[in-house]
Amino acid sequence: MNTETPLKIYSHSYRLIAAQCNAQRELAPAALIQQIIEVATEHADLLGIGFKRLQDDGNLWVLSRITVELKRYPKLLEEYTLSTWVEGYNRHFSERNFEITGADGEILGYARTIWVAIDMRTRRPADMSGLASLAVTVCDKPCPIAKQGKIRPIDPPQTVHNYTFRVSDIDFNRHVNSARYVELILNQMDLSTFDDYYLARFEIEYKHETHFDDEVEVCSAFADEALISAIVKDDTTVCVARSFMEPRTKPNDIQ
Amino acid sequence: MNTETPLKIYSHSYRLIAAQCNAQRELAPAALIQQIIEVATEHADLLGIGFKRLQDDGNLWVLSRITVELKRYPKLLEEYTLSTWVEGYNRHFSERNFEITGADGEILGYARTIWVAIDMRTRRPADMSGLASLAVTVCDKPCPIAKQGKIRPIDPPQTVHNYTFRVSDIDFNRHVNSARYVELILNQMDLSTFDDYYLARFEIEYKHETHFDDEVEVCSAFADEALISAIVKDDTTVCVARSFMEPRTKPNDIQ
Question: What is the DSSP letter of A112?
Fold first, then answer.
């Protein structure tokens, strides 16, 4: 698609159905991350810089980092909206941000994502400087949450779980689903933790793809007021994450 | 709600997003079952026989059985529709059926579900004979798939996996999500099996609820051309299922 006035901010509204809730009757963080990926894909397609356009040059977008920071999550049956825009880009990656608003337009939080273009065949970074249409998509809407910092896994970890990826973990690209890693990392904590605390900020960096039947270790340790986690396959770090939990100011109002 | 001409057949259309696909780029069976539950809930609410109405009498609907039979599953980006109606009911349970149609109205398959009303406090079957509004909802649209038969687990099983339920497995009612059992059962098979075969018919009977941190064994064995599975917690059978796999008539056309 080529248009003189591209839609710099794209919005998608949802109504929170039971299937996407956690036990606290809020949007589950992994479901939010799935929707962030969905909305990013929709906007990129609309701008003509989506997977289809990159495919013409033999390239594809790979999600490298996500940071989300929310003061509260959408509640069961609440209408909420994800709005997204491109903050900037260079030859190798683009920065795409999100604002999450609740039913009455209340800002619930923000997200930052980094997408890297890679060559499909070599799996090496692609050069995006030829994709001129990226320039006109940049938007100066502010995203008032800190960028993701370097995440260093703690050695030795305090909590280790083994997991083998099965059929239900594999996505349409035959890799493990990006949201599934988020579930495995949050599963390092107990249900009672999520009753008393909520995930106020979450950072994840995806480093390597995994596949059906791969065995991984999910390793975590608390440090600097956050749960630092790494998913490791043999000696390869698949992803690293940092989860900041904040006390709920009032008991979770389960109906 | 009280109306003289209730909407006997209720339909909900979807467009298949990547997040709900399996590795074969079709609607994942567990996602279909989640949508069957969603559409049942929407229709029951509309008819005034939903959870809210039963709650007034101290009762609630519990899903007891699902049977699905499809000649093919909706494909990535395809528009498809779930239509549902009540086949019949008696004092203790109601039978609700579904038709699944593809983009051009092609019938892809059907589903049968059985919902039991129980007393919230005693967890014993409730008597629904006083709920007169059920009578006017019954619809004689045919559902040309066989009802679910008795499923007897095979002893000893051929395949056993252990699993402990974590935060991401728990639903808004603080039980393990009904669709998660379906994933654990289908995870007894390999990715290559789903490349060569598809789940033509699936039957599951839910017998007992499980909770966070419960440890279960998923046990399966092939018998009578089906994979018979049981999820067992200590000596309690949580659910039993029968999966009929059919060869794909042509190689799965992954784009």
Answer: E
